[in-house]
Amino acid sequence: MRPSKRAPDELRKVTLERAVARYAEGSCLVSFGETKVLCTASLEERGPPWLRGSGKGWVTAEYSMLPRATHTRTRREISSGKPSGRTHEIQRLIGRSLRAVTNLPAIGERQITVDCDVIQADGGTRTAAITGAWVALHECFTWMRGRSIISVDPLRDHVAAVSCGISKGTPVLDLDYAEDSAAETDANFVITGSGGLVEVQGTAEGAPFSEAELLDMLRLAKAGVADLVALQKQAIAS
Hints:
The chain is an alpha+beta fold.
């Protein structure tokens, strides 16, 4: 039995609440169980310098964890003068995931930054952030189209993410902290609405995992992302 009493293929309760930040062009508060992330998308009328003159825009992301998102206070990274390696890796992952489904020339020479701030962490913060960031980005593009800044929707597909793992010898979906901290294998899958793989991150914490176990986790992840995409569609339709 999982600590959360869920079935092996069962997601935590997921909610996606859009338009939660008054001043942002797009926003979403995403919850995966007790993990909660605020995602805001901000439009800048100029792109990064290396794209100047290319006619192409850019989507990037920043990620941070609030000091009391965890059981004990963590020091703000601004105090140390630079983001940690983990933060840098996660925000690059979020940016890559969003760009994988975005038609960048359709934005024009502009940049959209999606900020993902973890309010409360209970495992799966990066996967929740990617799932909510897509909704925030969609809202930003809707805002831009409503003001004739762009003429077409730059999003080519949905993208969402979910964790999987091997816990007590069993492949399971969407690990919370209690399960993740004791799992034999931990993996994250970023998958598009059409089923394309954007990124797969997998680590054996003890014994190596087998190809069969990897395929079992991929099967769980694809089903989980299909459910997350359905929730994204509901969120943007409401």
